[in-house]
Specification:
There is one protein chain. The protein has 327 residues and is an alpha+beta fold. The protein folds into four domains: 87 residues, no CATH class; 70 residues, no CATH class; 85 residues, Alpha Horseshoe (Leucine-rich Repeat Variant); 62 residues, no CATH class. Helix content is 41%, strand content 14%. It is built from 14 helices and seven strands. The strands form two sheets. It has a four-stranded antiparallel beta sheet with strand order 1-2-3-4, with no helix packed on it. Strand 5 and strand 6 form a beta hairpin. Helix 1 packs across helix 2 and helix 10 crosses helix 11. The longest helix is centred in the C-terminal third of the chain and has 16 residues. The two termini are 56 Å apart. InterPro entries: ARM-type_fold.
Length: 327
């Protein structure tokens, strides 16, 4: 791929990139535009095409704006010595732009200004960036917020009404490598937003702090729990269960993949049976019961069938039907 501004091409190529597509025997033109600290393509056009033995790979430009393309020629992968190098140039009488060098000044965009305001510590822009839909702006704000001299700002944003801002404060806190993050993790595990709680579960699992095990249940013991959040909860429990975290910390195994993570025996069944958990969580647990757990728990599962057409009874009926079908 190359920036079309490095070639001597018509002025309408100033916002395009040229891309070699080896398996389609062509060079494509993509018009690009700014999008949240990055760029996006607004269209794909054919720039140049050839026959079945045209296999363009590398592409670059010289200081005069000529385009050079390596052509592998054959579909065969071994070094066959039959490749080509093509030069593409504009006609002498055609109107074209002056080619830009590798180190020419970049074209400024509004996104660049946004980044600069964030990096300069503008408090209002920092919050706006955390709420942005664009991940590059979010990341820039999180990186800045992770600095020690912005700790008070970070602590303040943990109480922000926007879940995106609270999530940004969480990720910044995690990146700041706190010595004792357990109290912060506990706080985020109880957040009202499911995405914040999911990030807190990931932080808890990665922290290997076994004292957080009993606090993990709080992340699923409230509404708005989907399958992704429940799976994250199970993964965090696995990390903090048994000797896994201790073995990771002490590096007791020669190879990391020999360390086995496992859930506490009967955990999923206990969640499915416990009426203290929201029904949506119990449904997710019922769907994950083994056949043995379904058969052994029929005394508490069967009464749930009489609840009518609610989610719990449907989940139990589905699980019983699945077990019987397997048999």
């Amino acid at each position: 791929m190359t920036d079309a501004r490095r070639a001597s091409l018509p002025v309408d190529y100033n916002h395009s990139v040229l891309v070699t597509v080896w398996n389609e025997n062509s060079i494509e033109r993509f018009d690009v535009e700014p999008k949240g600290g990055s760029i996006t393509s607004s269209g794909r056009k054919l720039f140049l095409t050839g026959g079945k033995d045209f296999r363009p790979v590398a592409i670059d430009c010289d200081s005069r704006g000529n385009i050079f393309v390596t052509d592998w020629m054959l579909v065969d992968y071994p070094n066959h010595g039959r490749g080509r190098i093509w030069r593409i140039s504009t006609k002498p009488d055609a109107a074209s732009t002056d080619p830009q060098s590798y180190f020419s000044e970049p074209i400024a965009s509004e996104d660049v200004t946004e980044f600069q305001l964030v990096e300069n510590g503008d408090s209002a822009k920092l919050t706006e960036a955390l709420e942005s839909d664009f991940p590059f702006l979010q990341h820039a704000a999180q990186m800045l917020l992770a600095k020690d001299d912005l700790r008070s700002e970070r602590d303040s944003l943990m109480r922000h009404k926007s879940a995106k801002v609270r999530l940004g404060a969480l990720l910044a806190s995690k990146r700041s490598d706190l010595q004792s993050p357990d109290s912060l993790i506990r706080r985020f595990l109880a957040d009202k937003d499911s995405e914040v709680r999911r990030a807190a579960l990931m932080w808890a699992g990665e922290s290997m702090l076994t004292e957080l095990r009993d606090d993990l249940d709080g992340a699923i013991n409230q509404g708005d729990v989907d399958a992704t959040l429940f799976e994250t909860y199970l993964a965090a429990v696995e990390n903090l269960n048994g000797d896994f975290s201790e073995n990771v910390r002490l590096q007791t195994a020669r190879r990391a993949n020999t360390l086995r993570r496992q859930l506490p025996a009967g955990l999923i069944a206990s969640v499915a049976e416990d009426s203290a958990f929201p029904n949506e969580v119990r449904v997710l647990a019922i769907d994950r019961l083994t056949d043995a757990e379904v058969a052994g728990g029929s005394d508490w599962l069967s009464p749930l069938l009489s609840e009518g057409a609610d989610a719990l009874s449907i989940a139990v009926a589905r699980r019983f039907a699945s077990m019987n079908a397997d048999r």
